[in-house]
Each structure stands twice: as structure tokens, then as C-alpha cells.
Specification:
Blueprint (H helix, E strand, L loop, with lengths): L3 H25 L12 E7 L12 E10 L11 E6 L9 H9 L6 H7 L2 E12 L13 E5 L1 H11 L17 E8 L2 E3 L4 E2 L8 H10 L14 H15 L6 H4 L17 H5 L25 H10 L2 H18 L1
Antiparallel strand pairs: 1-4, 1-6, 2-3, 2-4, 4-5, 6-7, 6-8
Helix pairs in contact: 2-3
């Protein structure tokens, strides 16, 4: 039978978890999920400067690396799982995974495998949603939203900034430009290639200016994954080697650091991928990331997924692994 002290401790723990869940739910609304728009619709957004005055741009790049595993150790289901880890180049440092993977591109037989482990980029912006087709999206108390922008949309934004006809920064409070995110379809996938800047300048409204004064701008860097410590760096390297070897994910070894989305491990903190789908939470040992993993990071046709999964096992996987080890031995 539990003591009074134990009961109180459990109740306090429950209250803490409830409060954390509420905070996450409230913070989630800051992210604008424009990828949920129906095809043929558009949203108009107004980007704002980064709250970090040291950042010359009004965005920040986020780089993650996906590590596929052939199932989870100790589970009968051998379905492939993926773990996302931060790329060290995001912090201006050399990434041991990319250092290894770059050498694979010298061998035509390893290029496909190299692509699998190459960093995946997205870009974090902030601003106001001025027009949205999402009826279920509710503007939070702080109307300044965050946006996880795909490389396709970012390429449009970047190239447009080089246009001499744009005389002012699009984020200028008086002479800025709205950006229209247009969702269509191409090759069976969502396509945003017809997105672009508005032709006419417009000033921020009084309500938008008051919101900036009341809430301030986000420091976008705070929504990057937490920089891995030296110990976490060793874990990432170990996981990378295990992934390349075609082994299963080991929750006993790595569960307290990084784990697949949805995997529940007792006495472990939130994983990087879980935090991609929830509010950024400051923890001592876990990566911090933006609120969600947008669907464009998973846009591989189903039949290609099957081919890739098959290629990661059997004779082909062993051949690839042999070639990788051969290159490692030559450079050692």
C-alpha cells in the first residue's frame, strides 16, 4: 500500500505532466501548417525579421540527418524505423557523418546510399498569416506565427531577393511584401513552385504593429535542435555506424538520447523527432527542434520505399557495406 508521501509525489508528477502537455498544446498553435491546405488553394503570409539582430537574414537554416534502422531490437516487428539527429554543420562545426558520406560520392555505386544519409534542410521563418484557407487553424493569442519552409519554397524566396525590381526588404514594416504560398500538384505530390511575392508593397496594420510590441519577435535560433554534447556526438556516430551496418535500433543504448517517432521508452526524455511534432522543450540531454516534420521530408513514392527497404537488406546491402568498409580501409 502506498504511503501518503508516495501518493503526493505521484499526484504532483501527474500535475506536472498535465501542465507540460498544456504548454505544448498552446505552443503548437504558433506553427502555421500550410501543407494541410487543399490543392488549388493559397495562403498569404507576411514574413518578419529574426528577433536575433545578429542574423542578417530573416530566416535560419535547420539541418537534420535521417538514420534508418531495420526494426527495433527486442521487437518482433521488423518494420524499418527512422531516427532524426542534428547535423553539426548547423552549428558551424564539422559533421562527422557528412565527412564520411562525402567520400562515398566518389564511388558511383555508393551515391544512392550517400544521398540517404545526406542532411535534409528546412528553413525557419516567422510572420503574420494574412489570409488562410485553413478553416480549422485558429490564430493564437500571439498572432506571430512560425513557418517551416521547404527547400522548394526557399529557392523561390532566395532567387526573388536578387531581383533588382525589389527595392525594399520584404520584411520592411512600411514597404514590405506579402508572400503567397500556392499549393498545386505535380507528379502526384504537392507542388509550391507557383508561390511568390505580391506585386504591391503594403504596410503592417496597426494591430500587427501592436502585436510585435506586445509579444516581441521570436529568436529563430532558439527553435533549432539543441547542439549535441560530446557524449551525444558519440551516440550519433554509433547510431550512424549501426544504421549503415543494417542493424536494428537499440532502445537500451540510445533511447535516452534519440529515438524513432512514437517509440515509448520508460524513464527516457522526449526524442528529437517527438519534439519535431510538439512544442520546443528545454531539456538537458535532448535535441530541441521545430514543432513538426513537414510532409515534404517524407515524399518518396511507395514503390520506391519498397525498393529502398529491400536494398537495405540481403546481398545488395552487404555489397554496399563491403564497398564502404573498403573505402574506409584505404583512407585509414
Amino acid at each position: 500500500m502506498s504511503t501518503l508521501a508516495e501518493i503526493r509525489a505521484k499526484l504532483q508528477a501527474q500535475d506536472t505532466r498535465t501542465q507540460q502537455n498544456q504548454e505544448r498544446s498552446q505552443s503548437d498553435s504558433a506553427l502555421f501548417p500550410f501543407w494541410n491546405m487543399a490543392e488549388g488553394t493559397s495562403a498569404s503570409v507576411r514574413y518578419l525579421p529574426d528577433g536575433d539582430s545578429a542574423n542578417s537574414f530573416f530566416w535560419i537554416e535547420r539541418s537534420l540527418i535521417k538514420l534508418p534502422f531495420n526494426g527495433i531490437k527486442g521487437q518482433s516487428d521488423s518494420k524499418q524505423v527512422t531516427v532524426q539527429v542534428p547535423c553539426m554543420e548547423m552549428y558551424g562545426e564539422s559533421c562527422p557523418i557528412l565527412t564520411e558520406v562525402r567520400t562515398w560520392y566518389k564511388d558511383d555505386n555508393l551515391k544512392e546510399t550517400a544521398n540517404k544519409y545526406w542532411k535534409k534542410r528546412t528553413y525557419l521563418f516567422q510572420g503574420f498569416v494574412r489570409q488562410s484557407p485553413l478553416s480549422d487553424d485558429k490564430t493564437p493569442e500571439n498572432p506571430i506565427r512560425r513557418f517551416v519552409i521547404s527547400p522548394q519554397i526557399f529557392a523561390i524566396i532566395k532567387s526573388s531577393l536578387m531581383d533588382p525590381e525589389i527595392e525594399e526588404l520584404p520584411t520592411d514594416y512600411l514597404h514590405g511584401l506579402d508572400f503567397k504560398i500556392v499549393k498545386t500538384q505535380k507528379g502526384g505530390y504537392a507542388d509550391y513552385s507557383t508561390s511568390g511575392w505580391a506585386r504591391k508593397e503594403s504596410a503592417l496594420t496597426e494591430a500587427e504593429r501592436l502585436a510585435i510590441e506586445a509579444h516581441g519577435l521570436f529568436n529563430l535560433r532558439e527553435f533549432l535542435p539543441k547542439k549535441p554534447s560530446e557524449a551525444e556526438g558519440r551516440i550519433i556516430r554509433e547510431m550512424f555506424e549501426a544504421s549503415v551496418d543494417g542493424r536494428q535500433y537499440d532502445p537500451d543504448k540510445w533511447g535516452a538520447y534519440y529515438k524513432p517517432w512514437g517509440l515509448q521508452i520508460q524513464n527516457s526524455g522526449s526524442s528529437g523527432e517527438e519534439e519535431m511534432r510538439s512544442a520546443p522543450v528545454k531539456t538537458a540531454s535532448q535535441p530541441r527542434a521545430e514543432d513538426t516534420t513537414p510532409p515534404w521530408e517524407e515524399q518518396t513514392p511507395a514503390k520506391e520505399v519498397k525498393v529502398s527497404a529491400a536494398a537495405s537488406s540481403g546481398d545488395k546491402a552487404q555489397d554496399i557495406l563491403a564497398m564502404i568498409r573498403s573505402r574506409q580501409n584505404k583512407t585509414a
